[in-house]
């Protein structure tokens, strides 16, 4: 039996992601670690805008299905939970502008963070994880070098992932990513990206250290 409050929060996050054009059709998945062994995760093959509480599946940390039809991309979620003891919620979506940066500029190792103060203050840096075929263990393996240091990341040519110590933090990371990627894309088309002065970047990074590790 899915705990109503947690399950409903996952449903709400999926609806928010869809309303902000970060999910289409059956794309994306959201999970919540209920305990060291039990994890709620959204179902495979269902449009998340119309997902119901009863659709949510349950798995354990060893990837054993306890109930429902869990997302085919659950291996990626499980890797986050194994590598990040603080992680309670993982959000995987397909934010268009964030993905587009990895398609148009495959040489990038991270979303440019020296242009926007809010990227540094809210998440620090946003790395771009090398491409892996969806639904494979390789997706989790490719993320491992970035965990637990980074809580928001772009998955090259595929999507993005954000994790947090609660559902709101995990969702906020995804929203921050796409909003920042869109601003950078607009700036790029208007004439190009410009960086903040080095001394300002250092001051912002120092502020981020004081703010802590959470997505803001």
* End-to-end gap: 32 Å
Which class do the helix and strand fractions yield? alpha+beta
Given as residue ranges, the uncertain stretches (5+ residues, pLDDT < 50) are none
What letter string, H or E per element, gives the SSE order? HEEEEHEHHEHEEHH
The CATH architecture of the domain at 4-112 and 126-167 comes to 3-Layer(aba) Sandwich
Query: Mean pLDDT, rounded to whole units?
Result: 96
- Count every beta strand, where a strand is a DSSP E run of 2 or more residues: 8
Rg computed from alpha carbons, rounded to a whole number of angstroms: 17 Å
Largest sheet: 8 strands, mixed
Widest sheet: strand order?
4-3-2-1-5-8-7-6
Query: How many separate helices?
Result: 7
Strand content: 15-25%
Assigned CATH superfamily of the domain at 4-112 and 126-167: Class II aldolase/adducin N-terminal domain
- Overall shape: globular
Question: Helical residue percent?
Answer: 40-55%
Q: Would you mind describing this structure in some detail?
A:
The structure is a single chain. It contains seven helices and eight strands; from the N terminus they run αββββαβααβαββαα. The chain is an alpha+beta fold. The longest helix is centred in the last third of the chain and has 24 residues, at 167-190. The two termini are 32 Å apart.
How is this fold's topology laid out?
Blueprint: H1 4-19, E1 29-33, E2 38-41, E3 57-60, E4 65-67, H2 74-83, E5 89-93, H3 96-104, H4 117-123, E6 128-129, H5 137-143, E7 152-155, E8 159-164, H6 167-190, H7 198-211
Parallel strand pairs: 6-7
Antiparallel strand pairs: 1-2, 1-5, 2-3, 3-4, 5-8, 7-8
């Amino acid at each position: 039996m899915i705990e109503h409050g947690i399950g409903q929060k996952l449903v709400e996050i999926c609806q928010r992601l869809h309303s902000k054009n970060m999910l289409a059709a059956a794309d994306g998945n959201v999970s919540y670690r209920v305990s060291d062994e039990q994890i709620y995760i959204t179902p495979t093959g269902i449009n998340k805008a119309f997902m119901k509480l009863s659709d949510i599946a349950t798995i354990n940390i060893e990837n054993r299905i306890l109930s429902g039809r869990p997302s085919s991309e659950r291996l990626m979620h499980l890797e986050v939970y194994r590598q990040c003891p603080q992680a309670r919620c993982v959000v995987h979506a397909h934010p268009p502008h964030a993905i587009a940066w990895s398609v148009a500029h495959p040489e990038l190792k991270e979303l440019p963070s020296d242009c926007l103060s809010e990227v540094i203050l809210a998440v620090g840096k946003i790395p771009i994880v090398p491409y892996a075929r969806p639904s494979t263990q390789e997706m989790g393996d490719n993320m491992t070098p970035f965990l637990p240091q980074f809580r928001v990341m772009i998955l090259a040519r595929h999507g993005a992932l954000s994790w947090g110590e609660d559902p709101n933090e995990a969702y906020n990371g995804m929203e921050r990513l796409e909003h920042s990627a869109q601003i950078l894309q607009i700036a790029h088309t208007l004439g190009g990206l410009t960086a903040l002065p080095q001394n300002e970047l250092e001051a912002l990074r120092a502020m981020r250290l004081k703010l802590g590790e959470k997505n803001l």
